Amino acid sequence: MATRLHLRSVVLGFLVLLSVQSCYSRNIPQVLQSLDERSNSTEPTEPMQGWTDGPNTRGTLDIIWSSVFTIFLCSWSVLCVQVPAVNEDDMVLFRRKLYLFILGIAGPEFTLLLAMGQFMFARRSFKAFRASNRESNRPEWTMNHSFFADMGGFLLKAPDMPAFPIDGLQIHYLVTNGYLEYPTLDKRTIGDRNKTDTLVRVITIFQTLWFTINCIARTTQHLALTTLELTALAFIPCTLATTFCWANKPADVSRPIILEITTPISTILLKAGSAASQPYRNTPLDFVSRQEWSWSLYWQFWRSFLRGMHIIFYPRVRPIPRFPNDNFPEPGPWGLLAFFFFSTGYASIFLAGWNFVFATQKEQTLWRIASLASMAAMVVTWITDTVVFRMLPGIRRETKRSLQRASSGFAPSSSPSSSLSPNLEVEKAVDSQGHDNSHGQTQTKKLWFAQTAVGRRIYRVANFLRNTSSDKDPEYTVPLRALLPVTFSGVLYLICRSYLLVEDFVGLRSLPKSAYDMVDWAGMIPHLCGTV
């Protein structure tokens, strides 16, 4: 009897231990939720398993991290800001870089246009030095030298004026005219001042390459792509083009090099003649290399609004102690064509989300409208700029020449009225020949309207809008027929871009199921799947 009781105690204890182990081996919350389904389980331990691949899914945080990280690298790592003034610290340099970063987030075309213009401007001084150095034994002048000079790496110190920065073309002018000795700065010294983080750029290249391959693979396997990933993908072409244009430009140079001359600036200006007779905008040597064009005029107008928000890009003293970071040199015809290709390509990528699945039908409609509107705004801007600044001036010149050839007695007058505008001269010539007298009546009506109270107010506002520079520099005067459409298109573009950025994150609340699936890389190689 005692033996049987002892045996029963052992069996009972074993069963108690078995039940305790079974309780610990189960997921407690699941046990509470499905107690009836698991009450009959007698499996004491989970089966053992060897090497196992991770789940073929990704989370929302993974999507956000990869996309935001790609956008950040594309917008930050490519930036090469100008050399700060002598009395400025690194924090000022960081703040200006942050301003450009924000503008680059709003539109990477802004950074690309800066890079293309500065690249073409650097090539001008590079070619000038290469042509003049053929006849002398001077050291080589490279694109690194041109970029270093154009970003404010050289300060000119003259006896009669505070030190001010000079670009590559101005250095070439001073050297060829005997005012300045040829700079003996070699390429290695410029490289020592360059603080470009090569590792960051390498990471950017690999990240953008991997991100692009991943997005292409998702589309080939019919996996959903999010709008945030589409936006990050749109940044990549502009980033690669910007990196190419700024490949020879040093980054984060904090101190310039001083170049001294013994000839006073006043003497240099006097010998330059009428070319240097006008007041300067940046430095006394503006007459050598200053060249305003349509986009620099637009930016001068838009910059007045940034001044109202206390975002100052431009130095307030003259001569300027540094070159501003929003310097827009003209990229030339081929550069403009390339910029048009990249900018329209950037806008067209958002149209690829036309048939994406959104959380609501309204969001899909708004995405389509914003994508189309941003593309339309860019096309309208290009058409307006081309017609007003490139086609109309040529048409007016040809019209004037035709009228001069048709009328043997007509010659341009040297009276004050002849300095009004070429268009007005042509119109007066037409009236003098009796071919068309309607414009004279139109001009009379305009003069009458300008003398009224309403007309004076309208003309006052129009004159203010044509030139919003603080000193009313005549070089910054822009026609309203170009300024108003381009400004309207720019505002529309910013509104559409803002909505697209907001929708990128709002749309993550509800995505198609396939958006969380990972790419089956083995499936992209047939022989690995046994389908050969």
TrEMBL record:
Signal peptide per UniProt: 1-25
Top-rank taxon: Eukaryota
The parts of the chain that form a coiled coil are none
- Membrane-spanning residues where? 63-86, 98-121, 334-358, 365-384
Q: Where is this region: Disordered?
A: 35-54
Alphabetized, the UniProt keywords read: Membrane, Signal, Transmembrane, Transmembrane helix
What is the protein name given in its UniProt record? Uncharacterized protein
Species in which this protein is naturally found: Clohesyomyces aquaticus
